[in-house]
Structure formats: structure tokens, C-alpha cells
Design a protein that fits this description.
The chain is mainly α. It is built from 14 helices and 2 strands. It has a two-stranded antiparallel ribbon with strand order 1-2. Strand 1 (234-235) and strand 2 form a beta hairpin. Helix 1 runs antiparallel to helix 14 (241-273) and helix 4 packs antiparallel against helix 11 (193-208).
Length: 277
């Protein structure tokens, strides 16, 4: 067997594995969208109905009428915008400090921050809830975004991207009389644009899809976000799967579109931020 044939076989196997993996990942989304157009009987039928004959478009109308999704949407947009903006600001400032400034205990402090990534997020739920309760912020907008205004992983990624910028540029800017603040926003931020964009996208997707924390800190329907609002389709009598899938499609599709259009930025940002030079 020639080298060319071996390479062709390896490529064929590789593409076959990737195709199987892609289909496996897409199957849940296909099932969600398919179920959103089924009748109540088809949604729980055995054997399962993969493609309904008569599309029940009215499921979307019913889903939107069963809960105030307009208010949920506004809440999700507001919380996502504030938490992502806050995360970007704290990430940029912290990454600049750790990559360019010299202060006592910098390395020790950075190691301590990185070590917090080993702590499961679930362990922070009770301390965060107790703190916000003492501040009397439960069931308010600040309670939905305050714990997410900083992200250690984002700081690490951007710090690596900042450190990849040659020191000579910094020294040249200082010789020209530029302050650290001006150098950060006019030189470093534009040069690390891909990493910043990827951090923003990941923050948007994570905040938009957040379920557990909004569920814990909100007690009124008017304060709920879209993922929490999906509970409206689960009652003591059972779950209306066709309506739940219709509502889930409405919630998920915007983030899928954002990711598909900007996935190149995410990959480039993480690649450039994860390695120096």
C-alpha cells in the first residue's frame, strides 16, 4: 500500500469519525425542533415520531401565551448585557495589571486566583446567596449579575494575550509620554481584539443560558429570565413536552446563531490567548 493510499484511508476514517461526532451533537437539537411541531400524543409516542406529518405551528403561539416571555426576554437581555460588560471591564483591567504592572505579591495573587478555578461553582452558591441576602438584594436585578462581573478564566486568557504583545511597544509608548491607561486602551485592547471578542461571546452565551442561579435568587415571575421561564410548561399534572420544546427553541436559537456566525472569533481568541509568542 502506497503512502498516498494510507493517507487517503486515514483522512476517510478521520472524516467519518468527525461526521459521526457532528451528527451526535446535532441530534438533540433536531429532536427539540422536531418535537416543537408535534402534537401532545406524538411528543410521547413509542416508538418515537422523528418527523411529524402535520406541523403544529400553533405550539409556538401557545408557548408564548402561557408565560410573559416578553418580560423574560427583556430580563435576559438586561442581565446578559450588564454581566458581560462588567466581566469585560474587570478582565481587561486585571489582565493588564498582571501582564504589565509590577507590584508586590503579583505572582502569588495570580496563582491564588488561578487556584479558585479548581473550586466547583456549586460550592459558591450558598456563600453568594447569603451575602446577597444580607445586602437585601434577593429578587433584584443586581442579584442576577453581581456574582458574574469577574471571571478568572477570562483574566487568564487575556493576560496571556497581553503578554504576547512585545515589550518594545510598551517601552516605545512610555518614551512618547503615553500613560498606562492610554496605552491599554489605544494599543493593547486593539491588538488583543480577537481574545476580547471570544471572551465576550462566551460570556454572552453563559449568561443567556444561566438557569440555576436566576432560579435561586428570584421569587417573582417578573424577575425571571428565559431559561427559568421554561418551568411554566412543567406542572404537577406532567410536562407539556411539545410546548416546552417550542419555548426551548425560542430560547436557544438566538445563541446558536450568534455562535455559528462568530465561532471563528472564539477559536482565534482562545488560540491566541492560550499561548505566548
Amino acid at each position: 500500500m502506497t503512502q498516498k493510499n494510507k493517507k487517503r484511508i486515514v483522512n476517510t476514517l478521520l472524516y467519518a469519525i468527525l461526521t459521526i461526532g457532528a451528527l451526535t451533537m446535532l441530534l438533540p437539537f433536531f429532536w427539540m425542533i422536531s418535537t416543537s411541531f408535534k402534537t401532545a400524543g406524538q411528543a410521547v409516542a413509542m416508538p418515537p415520531v422523528w418527523i411529524p406529518k402535520d406541523l403544529q405551528i400553533s405550539n409556538y403561539e401557545k408557548a408564548l401565551s402561557m408565560a410573559p416571555f416578553g418580560r423574560y426576554f427583556l430580563n435576559s437581555v438586561l442581565v446578559t448585557a450588564i454581566s458581560t460588560t462588567g466581566e469585560l471591564i474587570t478582565t481587561i483591567l486585571a489582565a493588564f495589571a498582571f501582564s504589565r504592572l509590577e507590584f508586590y505579591g503579583k505572582n502569588v495573587l495570580f496563582v491564588l486566583l488561578i487556584s479558585t478555578m479548581m473550586v466547583p461553582g456549586e460550592l459558591l452558591t450558598i456563600p453568594n446567596f447569603v451575602t446577597l441576602s444580607k445586602w437585601q438584594l434577593i429578587n433584584t436585578y443586581p442579584s442576577l449579575f453581581l456574582p458574574f462581573l469577574a471571571n478568572v478564566f477570562s483574566i487568564y486568557i487575556l493576560k496571556e494575550a497581553f503578554e504576547a504583545i512585545p515589550d518594545e511597544i510598551y517601552y516605545a509608548a512610555k518614551v512618547d509620554g503615553s500613560s498606562d491607561w492610554r496605552y491599554l486602551w489605544t494599543v493593547m485592547v486593539p491588538m488583543a481584539k480577537s481574545s476580547i471578542v471570544s471572551i465576550a461571546i462566551l460570556g454572552i452565551v453563559g449568561s443567556w443560558n444561566s438557569f440555576m442561579w436566576p432560579l435561586i435568587v428570584t421569587t417573582e415571575q417578573s424577575m425571571r429570565t428565559l431559561p427559568v421561564g421554561l418551568q411554566a410548561f412543567t406542572t404537577e399534572a406532567g410536562t407539556q413536552f411539545e410546548l416546552l420544546m417550542a419555548a426551548s427553541t425560542i430560547v436557544v436559537i438566538p445563541m446558536i446563531i450568534v455562535y455559528l456566525f462568530l465561532q471563528k472569533n472564539i477559536i482565534e481568541g482562545l488560540a491566541s490567548g492560550g499561548s505566548k509568542g
